[in-house]
Design brief:
alpha/beta, binds SN-glycerol-3-phosphate, TIM Barrel, nine-stranded mixed beta sheet, single chain, binds magnesium ion, 249 residues
Length: 249
């Protein structure tokens, strides 16, 4: 995993949002494989819990939008979820893609690529326990940043496992972004602000405060360049290939 020293050289991490979600069906192995081929440093993905307690990689709480099936993930077993096609809705050439389990993504992604796991729902606190167990079993605690809009869930994670890295998701230009992190009362690894709602000065203050800053979702070259110029630590984008080119040029 690229070390935080990359922050000092102002080369932001390329963080593939839901994989290369602009060019492949989001949160599928195809999208993650494409992001890796395009040279991403990190992959962001979203998780939910299945009926049989597996961590499922999917953005929505139902599979309606991103598969040919329907229903809530929590009400289906892995065997049931795996029946559905998760690629054809995006393009015929991706027909046959299946909803991945988080452990399958861990098997695919090399250890030196950071994975940003976003907890979408806590399922009464059950998802935190399952996630920590998998992170320990797969030796991924150091290479994963767990983010969520649910800051209390992140604090619970950190209380249970102090080694876990947590990132705060939020959608507001806070008066004091560092204070948002300090409010948790446990060490926060990263801020994940909505890209349009953080100023250059706040980014500088946050990085000086020891925080990584990973804004989302930044998809145009102009917006990527602005984020680079503002000194962010990483950029969450649907087009990691475009960002790779921009950083190489
Ligand atoms: O983690 C950044 C971003 O993924 C948060 O929003 O809806 O794309 O999961 P969403
Ligand atoms: Mg997400």
């Amino acid at each position: 995993m690229k070390s935080p020293s990359s922050m000092n050289t102002r080369t932001p991490l390329i963080i593939a949002h839901r994989g290369s979600a602009g060019e492949a069906p989001e949160n599928t192995m195809a999208a993650f494989e494409l992001a890796l081929r395009q040279g991403c440093d990190a992959i962001e993905l979203d998780i939910h819990l299945s009926k049989d307690g597996e961590l499922i990689v999917c953005h929505d709480r139902t599979i309606d939008r991103t598969t040919d099936g329907s229903g809530a993930i929590r009400e289906m077993t892995v065997t049931e979820l795996k029946q559905f096609d998760a690629g054809r809705w995006f393009h015929e050439k991706y027909a046959g893609e299946r909803i991945p389990l988080l452990k399958e993504v861990f098997d695919l992604v090399p250890q030196d690529i950071m994975i940003n796991v976003e907890i979408k729902e806590t399922y009464e606190g059950q998802i935190e326990e399952r996630l920590l167990q998998l992170l320990r079993d797969s030796n991924r605690l150091a290479q994963v940043v767990v983010s969520s809009f649910d800051h209390k869930s992140l604090r619970r994670l950190k209380h249970i496992e102090p080694e876990v890295k947590i990132g705060l998701l939020y959608t507001m230009n806070a008066m004091d972004h560092n204070e948002l992190a300090d409010l948790l009362g446990v060490p926060v690894y990263a801020l994940h602000p909505y890209g349009k709602l953080i100023d250059q000065e706040d980014i500088l203050r946050a990085t000086n405060h020891g925080l990584q800053v990973y804004p989302w979702t930044i998809n145009t070259k102009d917006a990527m360049q602005q984020a680079i110029d503002k000194g962010v630590s990483g950029i969450i984008t649907d087009f990691p290939g475009v960002l790779k080119q921009l950083l190489s040029s």
